[in-house]
Amino acid sequence: MDNRPIGVFDSGLGGLTAVQKLMETLPNEDIIYLGDTGRVPYGGRSRETIIKYARQDIAFLTSFDIKAIVIACGTVSTTALGEIEKDYDIPIVGVVRPAVERAVQVTKNKRIGLIGTVASINSGAYDKLILQRLPEAEIFSAACPLLVPLVENGRISRGDIMIETAVSEYLAPIKARKVDTLILGCTHYPLIGDVIGDYMGEGVTLVSPGAETAAYVEQLLKKNDISAEKGRRAAHRYFVTDSIEGFSNAASLFLNQDVRGEVSKVDLNSF
Amino acid sequence: MDNRPIGVFDSGLGGLTAVQKLMETLPNEDIIYLGDTGRVPYGGRSRETIIKYARQDIAFLTSFDIKAIVIACGTVSTTALGEIEKDYDIPIVGVVRPAVERAVQVTKNKRIGLIGTVASINSGAYDKLILQRLPEAEIFSAACPLLVPLVENGRISRGDIMIETAVSEYLAPIKARKVDTLILGCTHYPLIGDVIGDYMGEGVTLVSPGAETAAYVEQLLKKNDISAEKGRRAAHRYFVTDSIEGFSNAASLFLNQDVRGEVSKVDLNSF
Questions:
Q1: Which of B37, B45, B161 sits opposite A165 (nearest CB)?
Q2: B49 and A242: CB-CB below 8 Å?
Q3: Closest by CA position to B209, among listed B111, B119, B77, B37
Q4: Is the pTM of this model over 0.90?
Q5: What ipTM did this prediction achieve?
Q6: How far is A49 from chain B (nearest CA, A)?
Q7: Does the domain formed by B96-209 have CATH 3.10.20.90?
Q8: Which of A83, B125, B158, B170 has the most neighbouring CB atoms within 10 Å?
Q9: Rounded CA gap, B111 and B174, in Å?
Q10: How many Å separate Cα B269 from the centre of its chain?
Q11: pLDDT tens digits, residue range A174-232?
Q12: If you measure CA to CA, which chain A residue comes closest to B37?
């Protein structure tokens, strides 16, 4: 038993979709969340810069006595995790492995689609792991740079011409290859799951890394015997690098709950 | 006569539209450009964070022996300039005043439209200065948070359904108020000047702060007798906070010329 918190970070707000799943799956676990809202988004930045920012994010989280780190960010998970995980002595979980495990389980025709940020797609991290687990898989991927700003501006509804246009343009080449599984490789994308699902059609299973990661973390805690005490009331703290007010307002979109009063601002320059 | 360079900065790439105008207007002036591509965009961030980043940008530029600073960024000009300009002893020019001077000259019906980032519109900086210069003006403004990501993703052409939809949604309330002048309060917007012009119609004059700022800087240099020697060959250097390669590729969109080989990377954490 281990009541120390789990550290979770994301480039900004998208990771809260994973936090919501973590809270549902692990209601007794304390969570410390860092959203680097002062430098969001990471998805279009270079690998070098993403690794630098990720190291600062982790340095901040490990300034607390935490038992594990969850990278609730597709971009960092794909681009930086492989490079940096060896440098820390607590478990670090990204969203790639849990999503890949799920995708290779559910695909029947072994044709898997993948969407994400430019950095995530360029990293090749999903492709590499899928092919390790299922060497005969065929992977069809697309970088979707406009989906994050569209989601963050609330263009998430069925019938919205901008999100419908973006989704259909980005996904047309993937749909044409008749995939039966699509990995939503960015924590923003579950918010437009219905628009994506409508476009892809009923025969395609959508895999949300946030949800899969929550289940994966539950197993990890059990396996390492570091789960928190059952029935305890968990505490959740949020740290951001831009204004608290902006975060609190936007967080409700991603988390479906009010986080006011639990949010602090932090300067990562010293980490 | 003063051959020292002019320092120019922007949150990222948009400021290059102003740099292009500066180069045309002032072909003998050396320019040092800083694009904070590792933290772009600024337009959705809090005032406090924008001021902090602007001070770092200026600290970097003033580490060179420069004679003036041009803030080629609508967001910094509106949100931070008033707060910080008193702290430096060389002239600092933003894009607001030059654009306002032009707008109050060209408007006949004294109904002026204004578009910009969330931070720019919230600052009220344009409104305040317009009303100082033309107290009977009526100002109709709209924050357009999706225009920057759309432009940066190349959605700039007439007929592109995403940019056409965004432009018409953002501008409909302004057009309905029958403005005869529209200030494009963000350095990205001149790249979609034709889409905006089509939507607003022939009777509306578009004011591009970058172009007005170049003319304003020319006057400032003359007035202070700090213009560079005529006929000299000017040098242009570019600094960025994310990868050089990403900048060089994207810069051609904004600058219409190849900047490869003149770009360096800088870390602003120490400024």
A1: B161
A2: yes
A3: B77
A4: yes
A5: 0.92
A6: 6
A7: no
A8: B125
A9: 10
A10: 24
A11: 999 999 999 999 999 999 999 999 999 999 999 999 999 999 999 999 999 999 999 99
A12: A45
